[in-house]
Amino acid sequence: MSEPIILAQDLRKTYHVGDVDVHALRGVNLRVERGEFLAIVGHSGSGKSTLFNILGGLTPPTSGVVQVDGRDLRAISESDRAQLRKTAIGFVFQKYNLLPTLSAEDNINLARSLAGRNGSADPNFDEAVRMLGIAHRLHHKPRALSGGEQQRVAIARAIVNNPAILLADEPTGNLDTENSTIVLALMRDLNERLGQTIVMITHNPEAAAYAHRTERMKDGCIVASL
Question: CA–CA separation, 63 vs 125, rounded Å?
Answer without folding.
Answer: 38
